[in-house]
């Protein structure tokens, strides 16, 4: 019981980020804007993450804007909270897709025979030979930027480690008596993989999911920082850091909150992965 407590505690810390992302519209609630008596035009809403107010540019943290405003007068707290929806959603989706792809490919490599094994290992080696950011950035430069594009490209670089772990366990299970009995009974290769091999081969790879998740969020932030992620004015942690480059030395409040959120998320994910590995 005492060994499982750190895993649960770290999982709870990491779960706070998706919770904040879901509650972002309520935590960064827009204030009711009163129309001008002369023009009847609604004034900018400061807590809309994309609403600009050039008269309120680079305001330091205060009662009106708890984390200040950026160079376009947008509320930093609102963009931080709404940006977590993009960053966390892309990270979770990419990690889930990478885990599914790695599990299926690794299981096939360990079950379908030497030819399939060599082919999948070759592809795995090619993907791992390049830095993940280089592959993702090269792909993002060829297609229109969007959240879905980021998910697919990040998942493309996240599956090899999962595949290697699942493959190793699948090779061991493929030689077990109950799998041999299933083959002797006429079970197809696909049934052997899905019913007899994968349920037991997935467990060792689960400890890699937090690492893949942390790497996915970091890659999404890197893409957005380079201008290859979600297009502006959509808020994300990487986009917030990119927008703050011009005011790095004069307005620290534009840089520290998204950088701290990114650091804490990746650190929480890695600490959870360490706890899962130690509890195995």
Describe the structure using short key phrases.
280 residues; mainly alpha; 0% strand; 11 helices
Could you explain how this protein is built, in words?
The chain has 280 residues and is an all-alpha fold. It has a domain at 94-205. Helix content is 65%, strand content 0%. It contains eleven helices and no strands. The longest helix is centred in the middle third of the chain and has 36 residues, at 76-111. It is elongated and about 75 Å long. Residues 31-46 have low confidence and may be disordered.
In short:
The chain is mainly alpha-helical. The chain is 65% helix and 0% strand.
What's the helix and strand layout?
Elements lengths: L3 H19 L1 H4 L48 H36 L2 H16 L2 H9 L6 H28 L2 H8 L4 H13 L7 H17 L11 H7 L12 H24 L1
The total of helices stands at: 11
Mean pLDDT: 83
Structural class call reads mainly alpha
Taken in chain order, the helices and strands follow as HHHHHHHHHHH
Question: Which regions have little confidence, pLDDT < 50, spanning 5+ residues?
Answer: 31-46
- For the CA atoms, what is the radius of gyration? 23 Å
- In which range does the helix fraction lie? 55-70%
Largest sheet: none
User: What general form does the structure show?
Assistant: elongated
Number of strands: 0
Q: Roughly what fraction of the amino acids lie in strands?
A: under 5%
Cα distance, first to last residue? 13 Å
